[in-house]
Amino acid sequence: QSALTQPASVSGSPGQSITISCTGTSSDVGGYNYVSWYQQHPGKAPKLMIYDVSHRPSGVSTRFSGSKSGNTASLTISGLQAEDEADYYCSSYRSSNTWVFGGGTKLTVL
Amino acid sequence: EVQVVESGGGLVQPGGSLRLSCAASGFTVSGTYMSWVRQAPGKGLQWVSVLYSAGDTYYPDSVKGRFTISRDNSKNTLYLQMNSLRVEDTAVYYCAKGRVGDYWGQGTLVTVSS
Fold it and tell me: Which of A4, A33, A36, B20 could form a disulfide with B8 if both were Cys (CB 3.0 to 4.6 A apart)?
């Protein structure tokens, strides 16, 4: 069961915007609107940032947004801040009641 | 306040067994999806199992037949029984609340080594 494909790393300067992609297939990302994004700081538990493609949980900054086109979902962070430096993971429902994560993307704020 | 706290990790030999617990507060485990997710040292997240509110359980092929997810409603606690453990099962195991994983515990470390 292969993972979703994410870039290993992305970087940006404070104030800039960055986008992290998450590519799957029609059996997961493309077939369902059940894509979530998680932020994980070193040594900490993952934190939900986006669910169901584009919904933000209460308390998550409006600088974080999600979208999907075909088999690729995207997380965009605008107005980059130093505290955004972390690992980011996407996940998706996959057919037959299974779930799959992406390999993770390390975001560096320059 | 919603909280989940994992426990039960430790060092176990290959082929051994371990049972993890996830004590929940602020919500009822029987009323929502509950999942286990693991993270091997320096690696990414991997889905391990899910227990739906109706009682259905599902696993990826990598743990199917070896791991069992269950819950005790009276204790509001989720469990993961892990049998026939392998070196590659070494990871921090997290429990997560809900279909979207809106709350996670801090994890419990399982080390499988001889």
Answer: B20
pLDDT digits 0-9 by tens, B82-104: 999 999 999 999 999 988 888 99
Residues in chain A: 110
CA A64, distance to chain mean position in Å, is: 10
Name the pairing type of β-strands B91-97 and A35-40. unpaired
Reported as a single tens digit per residue, the pLDDT across B28-79 is 999 999 999 999 999 999 999 999 999 999 999 999 999 999 999 999 999 9
Q: Count other Cβ atoms within 10 Å, centred on residue A64.
A: 18
Nearest CB neighbour to A1, from listed B61, B104, B107: B61
Q: Which of A60, A99, A100, A101 to mutate to test the interface with B (most CBs of B within 10 A)?
A: A99
> Given A44, A51, A98, which is nearest B100 (Cβ)?
A51
**Alpha-carbon span A17 to A20, nearest angstrom:** 10
* CA distance linking residue B89 with residue B87, whole number of Å: 5
3-state secondary structure of A39: strand
Predicted local distance difference test score (pLDDT) of residue A95: 87
Cα(A17)–Cα(B42) distance, rounded to whole angstroms? 27
Q: What tokens appear for B10 in the block?
A: 């430790």
Count contacts between A and B (CB, < 8 Å): 55
